[in-house]
Amino acid sequence: ASRNVWPDAVPELEEAFKKLGRLVYEVAKPIIRQVDELVEAERPGHGTALYDRTFSESRLALGRLLHYYGVREGAEGAEGDWCGWHNDNSTITGLVPALWLDESSGAQTAAPAGAGLYVEGGDATQVHVAAPPGCLGFQIGEAAQILSGGVVHATPHMVRGHVSAAGAPLVCRSTFALFMEPQWDAVLRPPPSTDF
Asked: Above 70 in pLDDT, residue 77?
């Protein structure tokens, strides 16, 4: 992997990015310890595999600033979905509340109705999720599903965009996600008690 490139125009970005990443990383640790207890109760022999593979044995925590540009009604590709349905391949992903901005001024604005993060539950219902200010959100990824032998499931999710009407301000969305996962070359296996 190449080294990060920090923009000279925003000198405070590197320190703020790393500080936020460390916070999300530390908050995820006790959550994964609780998930390990849940998995061990259903899959004896699991132990603390999620925690060990993700935090003790791995240096792979990928922080990403995510920016979704505003879309104008009638523009090519203005169907409204900024990021289609997918699962993260992490053990756990930490998410901060999204900022909604007027793209031309940079001023913060209210989230447009119906836009933002959606997750799919086990019964295939789709739920709009918006973390309140000052809170963090976490979702399970595919590495946790494999390592738990299916006790926990990756969270299918997508980001529904907002299409601004002609003449209305373009609204964009920015957020931060931290993907915490096993090392790149780690072999993933379910607990020994998993019945294939």
From this structure: no
Q: Per-residue pLDDT tens for 140-178? A: 999 999 999 999 999 999 999 888 888 888 999 999 999
For 184, other C-beta atoms within 10 Å of its C-beta total 9
Q: Pick the residue with more confidence: 164 or 102?
A: 102
Identify the burial level of 48 via C-beta atoms within 10 angstroms of its C-beta, where 0-12 means exposed, 13-18 middle and 19 or more buried.
middle
Q: What is the dihedral of CA 153, 35, 47, 49, to 10 degrees?
A: 60
Distance of CA 79 to CAs 44, 129, 164, 167, Å?
A: 47, 20, 11, 18
Phi-psi sector, 27: left (phi>0), alpha (psi -120 to 50), beta: alpha
pLDDT at 66 over 80: yes
Mean pLDDT, rounded, for 106-115: 92
Q: What angle do CA 154, 160, 162 make, to 5 degrees?
A: 165
Q: H-helix or E-strand containing 41?
A: helix 13-42
Q: Give the span between the Cα atoms of 7 and 151, in whole angstroms.
A: 42
Question: Residue 100 and residue 110: Cα distance in Å, rounded?
Answer: 6
